[in-house]
C-alpha cells in the first residue's frame, strides 16, 4: 500500500465508505457481539450494555443496508428475529478481534493519558 498525496481514503473511495460504516463505536461493538453467532435484539442490548434499543436498531439497520448483518425472521408465535453476520460481515471478525484486544490491553493507558492532559477543573470524557 502506498501513501502518496491524494491516495489515502479519497471522498469517493470505496475504502473510505467502508471505514465510515464501521467507524462508529456501536457498529464495531455490535459486529463483535455477533461474532460468536446469531443473537436476538434483546440479547444484543443486554450483551452490549449502554446502548439504547433505538440506537441498536439504527445500527443493525445500517449494517444490514451495507451487507454486513442479516436479519432473519422466524415464522413462530410470537415471531422470533435473529441477527447474524453475513459472509462479508464475517470478514471483519479478525480485525475487530484485534482492535478489541488492543483496546483491552491499552484502554487504561489511554484513559490515564486523557486524565493527565485534561485542563484543570474539567472532567475527562468517558464512553
TrEMBL record:
Domain HTH hxlR-type: 13-111
Keyword annotations of the record: DNA-binding, Transcription, Transcription regulation
Signal peptide: none
Pfam families the record matches: HxlR
Entry-linked InterPro entries: ArsR-like_HTH (IPR011991), HTH_HxlR (IPR002577), WH-like_DNA-bd_sf (IPR036388), WH_DNA-bd_sf (IPR036390)
Name of the molecule in the record: Helix-turn-helix domain-containing protein
